[in-house]
Write a structure and sequence with these properties.
The complex is a heterodimer of chains A (191) and B (259). By secondary structure, chain A is mainly beta. Chain A contains 1 helix and 10 strands. In chain B, strands 2-1-3-5-4 form a 5-stranded mixed sheet. In chain B, helix 2 crosses helix 4. The chains are: A mainly beta (191), B alpha/beta (259). At the A-B interface, helix 1, strand 1, strand 2, strand 3 and strand 4 of A face helix 1, helix 5, helix 6 and strand 6 of B.
Chain lengths: 191, 259
């Protein structure tokens, strides 16, 4: 946890120190849903549609021209510890643009880089193996993986500074067979 | 604020049962692994050896090669002249029948329990790993009674062991110990996390040439003992965002048209 706090503080500090203070700020909270229709969620073969994985983010908003805005954002999705002490954290670096379609709706598009860390405390887990049980090594240490997605989403404003957002992130954009989607559903406050 | 608190209470209880292969506790050192097919007759398992090769190919393509967060590429080779008839997993490994850093897949009747569908054993020495995957083709094998999708899932499960994964405790995952009574068409989140842990993505989903500035080239490294280090790729990612913001865009208040 210290590692993650350390990294998050560094990233936020670096970003906030260097960006102009008068930029519009955006705070969001919601859920991150990975592998939509690509991850099995039940014995009957049902696949992922929705789950509650806490997601929080902080972003800023910059006007480009006319209805076009640039909205970089730093997000975090976290999975609580399980009994096996395996943890997963995902940091999102969103580089999204937005296009104001109407007074209450904006289109969002861009790129996101994911930094996913899976870690565990080691030890063994005793699990069924055929008719008997076997001690399997649990995950030990931390392993990070980075990947990027193409983003497309929309944001609906029900108040001038409050909105709801749905963003789809496409993984493996160039590989049709193995293409997969995540989505992020958030409630947003513009400060 | 209430929403923050509410979200903080939620836990994702559907994942995090990933474990590692009980023999090795690790995966292969390389991310591209060849799978050789034994020439031993598979007819007792309900299919020919050539069909077995096709099933293995479907198993890796439908499951393990399809994980966007992992950088694993399993290549299924043609049927080789390696005969594993009458040999146990350990015999095959000890006899040197498996090429270095590769997996050998085949059928035989060496199972102590006649109803076992299959098994896989992995062995590593230094940087070199080998694994052997055997499907039960004995007279009492239950493989012929399975539909094609289940046969593929059984083979994919054994491939999971062969690449370094252990079982999971949640039944809808492929790496659960028992496939009977369920429909398995996809990996579960534990399977995805496990293979992503063993074979982390060292290349962006869109290609390095596509996103050179977004940190997508970040190196994969074990950061368990390195609390203060950030990868160069992600420092670039942060700096790129900051520079873009500073150089090219004008700070603004909330969408002007909304106010």
């Amino acid at each position: 946890m210290n590692l993650f706090k350390n990294i998050l503080i560094k990233a936020l500090t670096l970003t906030s120190l260097m960006l102009p203070a008068q930029a519009a700020h955006l705070v969001s909270t919601g859920t991150f849903v990975p592998f939509v229709n690509k991850a099995q969620t039940s014995d009957s073969g049902a696949t992922q549609k929705f789950e509650l994985t806490p997601y929080v983010s902080y972003g800023q908003q910059f006007h480009i021209s006319g209805p076009h805005y640039f909205m970089p954002e730093l997000g975090l999705a976290y999975y609580n510890e399980s009994a096996k002490k395996t943890k997963k954290r995902i940091l999102f670096f969103h580089y999204d643009f937005s296009y104001v379609l109407s007074t209450s709706f904006i289109l969002r598009y861009g790129l996101t880089t994911y930094w996913q860390t899976i870690s565990g405390d080691g030890g063994t887990v005793r699990l069924r193996n055929g008719q008997s049980y076997t001690n399997y090594p649990a995950l030990s240490g931390s392993q990070s993986t980075y990947y990027s997605t193409l983003d497309l989403g929309g944001e609906f404003f029900f108040m001038p500074n409050r909105s709801a957002r749905l963003d789809f992130n496409m993984m493996n954009a160039r590989d049709f067979d193995n293409r997969a989607f995540n989505y992020i559903l958030t409630y947003n406050w513009y400060l | 604020m209430k929403l923050f608190i509410l979200l903080g209470l939620f836990t994702n209880l559907l994942a995090f049962g990933s474990t590692l292969n009980s023999n090795t506790g690790r995966g292969f050192d390389k991310n591209e692994i060849d799978i050789y097919i034994s020439s031993t007759d598979c007819s007792g398992a309900g299919f020919s050896t050539a069909t077995f090769r096709d099933l293995v190919e479907d198993a890796v393509d439908d499951y393990w090669n399809a994980v966007p967060t992992a950088d694993l590429k399993l290549n299924v080779k043609g049927v080789s002249n390696i005969d594993i008839a009458g040999k146990t997993h350990n015999d095959i490994l000890n006899d040197g029948l498996v090429p270095a850093n590769a997996i050998l897949a085949g059928c035989n009747q060496s199972f102590a329990s006649p109803t076992t569908l299959g098994g896989a054993v992995m062995s590593c020495t230094g940087n070199t790993c080998r694994a052997v995957l055997i499907i039960n083709s004995g007279a009492s094998s239950q493989m012929p009674n399975q539909d094609r999708d289940t046969q593929i899932a059984v083979i994919a499960h054994e491939v999971g062991h062969a690449i370094g994964l252990g079982h999971t405790e949640i039944s809808h995952n492929l790496m659960y110990f028992n496939i009977s009574g369920k429909t398995q068409n996809w990996l579960g989140q534990d399977d995805i996390d496990g293979v992503s842990y063993l074979y982390p993505h060292d290349e962006p989903a869109l290609g390095c040439d596509f996103l050179p500035l977004l940190g997508s080239m970040g190196a994969i490294k074990d950061i368990s003992d390195d609390d203060d280090d950030m990868s160069g790729g992600f420092m670039i990612s942060i700096l790129a965002g900051v520079l873009l913001s500073l150089l090219f865009f004008t700070p603004t208040k909330i969408f002007k048209s909304f106010i």
